[in-house]
């Protein structure tokens, strides 16, 4: 159970909803990946301002000096994600990942560049590839007002911590809409059995998309009478989803790209359709020490220990399950914003539907 702006909100598992078959981590959050931190800055003000920033810090060392393998997969490219080409070319990540709203991407990028330049040891750095993701929160936020500042982004980074992750209408999820209900930030994790490596996969999502909502295979959107193309409600489908996949498995950027692709299967299991106006991106990375990339290597060749292709399937499954549950958690924990016509998910009604289909008692 998480407290969101003073309101106690239960996650899917708190109601007995168990998605998938793999075990979750202790927190059932992306921070089950050891050393990873998440921070939010939430901006709620009169005049329809509902927006924010979410920062994902992969490890506690200087990330520019200790880069990590990473990959980005684009399911539908109607978005403004920065830093794609260098990640694609070099296969690594050298900054925190920042999520915010569409028109605040340049501001967030400037803030991250300054953050990296000001880190001890980076005095001679002249190039920074900031990775900034977004969704358009213009339905619930005065997005044209450009209210996010560089200080807000730096505050989200400063707020980043290990442990429980606040979900719902916080940070970059403050003004988002998902399946016609209030969307937001959601997270989940899976831990593989020791016989399969014992690795952890954590997922964090920023949900702002539509389709026909399904929860653990149940057609909830149909039962609620709220879904894409019903009465031609186009606005209930266009949007975006940012998905962050983190793992401690020793993986190359190539196999991280393969994991990233599977995250979209998790989105599809919730009923998302990656519509024409949706920016659906997955950023996947590994924090394992064995695969980090030094900024100034002392040798010309490197010997990397990475997981064999034949042992990737359990990680694929973990990614799918954690993504699906993270999206559902974003809906269960989201709260309505002031003066909004977008309702929160009617949890009591949803639970009745799930009981009807025998998913919970």
CATH superfamily: L-amino peptidase D-ALA esterase/amidase
Instruction: Note the overall shape.
Output: globular
CATH topology: L-amino peptidase D-ALA esterase/amidase
* Tally of helical runs: 7
Q: Which structural class do the helices and strands define?
A: alpha+beta
At CATH level 2, the architecture is 4-Layer Sandwich
- In terms of DSSP E residues, the strand content is 15-25%
Rg from Cα: 19 Å
- What are the segments in which pLDDT stays under 50 over at least 5 consecutive residues? 2-6
What number of domains?
Answer: 1
Largest sheet descriptor: 7 strands, mixed
CATH classification class: Alpha Beta
Sketch the topology as an H/E string, one letter per element.
Answer: EEEEEHEEHEHEEEEHEHEEHH
> What helical percentage do the residues reach?
10-25%
What's the average pLDDT? 94
Counted beta strands = 15
């Amino acid at each position: 159970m998480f407290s969101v702006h003073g309101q106690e909100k239960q996650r899917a598992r708190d109601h007995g909803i168990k998605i998938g078959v793999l075990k979750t981590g202790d927190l059932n959050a992306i921070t089950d990946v050891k050393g990873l931190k998440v921070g939010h800055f939430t901006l709620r003000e009169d005049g329809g301002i509902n927006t924010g920033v979410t920062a994902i810090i992969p490890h506690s060392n200087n990330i520019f000096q200790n880069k990590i393998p990473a990959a980005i997969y684009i399911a539908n490219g109607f978005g403004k994600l920065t830093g794609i080409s260098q990640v694609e070319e070099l296969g690594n990540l050298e900054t925190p990942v920042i999520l915010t709203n569409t028109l605040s991407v340049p501001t967030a990028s400037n803030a991250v560049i300054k953050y990296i330049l000001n880190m001890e040891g980076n005095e001679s750095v002249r190039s920074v590839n900031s990775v900034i993701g977004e969704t358009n929160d213009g339905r619930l936020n005065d997005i044209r007002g450009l209210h996010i500042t560089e200080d807000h982004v730096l505050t989200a980074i400063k707020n980043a911590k290990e442990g429980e992750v606040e979900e719902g209408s916080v940070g970059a999820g403050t003004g988002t809409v998902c399946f016609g209900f209030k969307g937001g930030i959601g997270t989940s994790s899976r831990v593989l059995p020791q016989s399969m490596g014992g690795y952890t996969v954590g997922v964090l999502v920023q949900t702002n998309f539509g389709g026909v909502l399904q929860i653990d295979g149940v057609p909830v959107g149909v039962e609620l009478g709220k879904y894409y193309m019903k009465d031609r409600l186009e606005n209930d489908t266009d949007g975006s989803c940012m998905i962050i996949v983190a793992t401690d498995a020793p993986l190359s950027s190539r196999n991280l790209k393969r994991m990233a692709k599977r995250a979209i299967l998790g989105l599809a299991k919730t009923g998302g359709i990656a519509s024409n106006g949706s920016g659906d991106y997955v950023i996947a990375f590994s924090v394992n020490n064995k695969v980090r990339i030094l900024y100034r290597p002392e040798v010309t060749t490197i010997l990397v220990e990475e997981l064999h292709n034949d042992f990737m399937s359990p990680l694929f499954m973990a990614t799918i399950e954690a993504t699906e549950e993270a999206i559902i958690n974003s809906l269960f924990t989201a709260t309505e914003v002031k003066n909004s016509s977008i309702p929160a998910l009617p949890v009591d009604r949803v639970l009745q539907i799930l009981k009807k289909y025998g998913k919970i008692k």
